[in-house]
Write a structure and sequence with these properties.
mainly beta, six-stranded mixed beta sheet
Length: 218
């Protein structure tokens, strides 16, 4: 009789509770932009520096003047571009996230743009100019959502050969699939009402080997 070989799969979930009094130790994904000078003369250049705790492409735009780059790649180190002022006034330079991901390669789509302003003055004392009142543009950052203190899931399973018996407070599951199944896809859904506050890692396609296969969902 031919033995029916099976592959065992163990899935463990780890509850990461992020409490409010530890918020100072947790940094949300963001980008920041700074100018090497906040006031320059007409015709002068300033260095625009962009940094992020994510990896990917950031687009740059300016309300006036000339940028030598319209996009840069951010990662482990800060990146910079050069802005040259053409006329007196206020210039707002904005860093707009294009395609950013975290260190695990997961795309992040809810990062707000960041801006900085530079005041440009006319350095020609022989030219009479009429002062123009300008109001520096400000970048209104959306209020950061409160951290969730709910680390449970609303569902967890695999396809194909899904298993039953999920409960939010149960953290370990095991099941078997036929030897003909070479891979499964692990899915996990956040708790109801926590879709924008929880981050789940470890899901997706998993290749199987004959015997015991163990995966962790965080």
């Amino acid at each position: 009789m031919k033995k029916n070989l099976i592959k065992s799969i163990f899935i463990t979930t780890f509850f990461l509770l992020v409490v409010l009094f530890l918020q100072k130790n947790v940094q949300a994904a963001s980008i920041s932009i700074h100018a090497s000078k906040t006031t320059i003369n007409v015709g002068e250049s300033v260095t625009i520096t962009v940094s992020s705790d994510c990896i990917g492409k950031v687009n740059l735009s300016a309300t006036a003047g000339s940028l030598d780059k319209t996009s840069i790649w951010v990662g482990d180190a800060t990146e910079s571009a050069t802005l040259t002022a053409k006329e007196a006034g206020t210039i707002t330079v904005t860093a707009q996230p294009a395609t950013l991901s975290d260190g695990n390669g997961t795309d992040i789509n809810n990062i707000a743009p960041s801006s900085c302003t530079i005041t440009v003055v006319n350095n020609n004392s022989n030219t009479e100019t009429t002062p123009v009142a300008t109001t520096p543009a400000t970048s209104e950052q959306p209020e950061e959502p409160k951290k969730s203190n709910n680390a449970t899931l609303s569902n967890l399973g695999i396809t194909p050969n899904d298993f039953k018996g999920f409960t939010p407070n149960k953290t370990s599951y095991s099941t078997s699939v036929p030897n003909s199944v070479s891979s499964v896809n692990i899915y996990a859904n956040p708790a109801k009402g926590q879709e924008n506050k929880q981050k789940i890692t470890g899901t997706g396609k998993k290749n199987l080997q004959e015997g015991v296969n163990q995966f962790s969902i965080v």
